[in-house]
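Model it.
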Amino acid sequence: MRGLNFISLAIFLVLTTLQEAWSHGDQPLSKIGIHKATVDLNHDAYVKASPSVLGLKEQTTEWVTLEYSSPKPSADDWIGVFSPANFNSSTCPQEKPTVYPPLLCSAPIKYQFANYSSPKYKDTGKGYLKLQLINQRSDFSFALFSGGLSNPKLVAVSNQVAFANPNAPVYPRLAQGKQWNEVSPIFLFFSFNN
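Modeled.
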């Protein structure tokens, strides 16, 4: 009986380890407490994104360079990528008249700590990042936050960045086939004229 308990414990530990390996833990964006975000814009802080128009050669992905600065830098400052670019509370649908909407209406689609490629950011307050963007069929903006991921404070917002042709076909799509277990690829080879 003792041997069976040992084997059961060993199997339990192996399955627990495999579960952690399969799930890779929490989804990184779930760590952001965007519902707790406050606005603390600082006129001395900035985020500049370039180029402002992406995909001029019909690319569907492109790199954006961000330059940013904060007069009060800290090790837990981070840059969030938002798409659509207008992410403030004016775009929030009102759920109940007695409930105040959050200050930010959407969560970032990706983020990176401000000191990621600028190790001296905490000392200088200046940094840069290169981020790859995929055509989301909407514009982008970038925001500098202080307060870490759990208590974000919006410090600065960048200029907007967009793909030259946001409606360009990006990837093939899948559609339900005639049977429940069939899938058919759909290739979109058309363009939208304005």
